[in-house]
Amino acid sequence: MRLGFGLMCKAPRPGLSKTRLAASLGAEAAVGLARALLLDSAALLRTLADAAHAPCIAFHAPADAAGEMAALLPGWEMRAQPWGDLGARMGAALDHLFARGAQGAVLIGADAPTLPRALLELLCSALARGADAALIPAYDGGYCALGAARPVPAVLAGMPWSTPGLMEATRQAAEAAGLRLAVLAPWHDVDAAEDLDLLRLTLRGLAPAGLSPLPPWPAHATRIALGASVDLRLG
After folding, report:
1. Mean pLDDT of the residues in the chain
2. Buried b / exposed e across 177-213, counting CB within 10 Å, b at 16+?
3. Which end of the chain lies in a sparser environment, N or C, as judged by fewer CB atoms within 10 Å?
């Protein structure tokens, strides 16, 4: 199966990325951590794309961020996200990957820097085995990654984005549409200060009960930025 890979991402700018973290860490530390999350998520996805001999596409927001994103992600293709909610933007990203000839598409965000590579490989395998869509659930009730063997508007339109009910709503929508949905073991993302303790655990390879036991991505940039953010907060 010929796969396409996309990273849904925001430019690491004050007031745009990780605003909930900024409330506790401060704007400078939050932007630094957002940049690190982006770099580690990109490095993870790049390893999969390189193994599949596929390009990496950064679907970025805002639209005027192409230059700064290209500087952060050299060698990546840049494509601006359209207006609309997250479902519309993810749908446009999938459409673009399929229009380029992909037989399956994988989208991740830039906020799960320790997401195990092996878990993403299982996501790809689920598509190859016949799933219409595959998900890696997030600890907070959303999901960290989406795989699709074709456009799947049924699981993207009208979803309760950024709420604990997203994963269950997606399951229900897939069932109603007759989609074969593969749901893998969960992982966690980083949105707010309360997520940092869990991030520290997974950076140490100590995934708590309920998360996948697979080895986490090493996330070197996040390790450095997380230490710096703590120093800034204490200072």
Report:
1. 94
2. eebebbbbebbbbbbebebbebbebbbeeebeeebbe
3. C
Contacts of 124 (CB under 8 A, 6+ apart): 1, 3, 48, 52, 104, 106, 147
Residues in the chain: 235
Mean pLDDT, to the nearest integer, of 70-79?
A: 97
Residue 223: give its domain's CATH number.
3.90.550.10
Q: Are 232 and 30 in contact (CB under 8 A)?
A: no
The structure's pTM equals 0.94
Encode pLDDT of 40-63 as tens digits: 999 999 999 999 999 889 999 999
Q: How many distinct helices (H) and strands (E) make up the chain?
A: 8, 7
| Within a domain: 181 | yes
Which residues, at least 6 apart from 120, have a Cβ–Cβ distance to it below 8 Å?
A: 44, 45, 48, 106, 108, 136, 145
Using the structure block, give the residue that is written with the tokens 């320790």. 114
End-to-end CA distance of the chain: 51
Q: What is the pLDDT of residue 229?
A: 56
In a domain, 235, yes or no: no
**What's the total number of domains in the chain?**
1
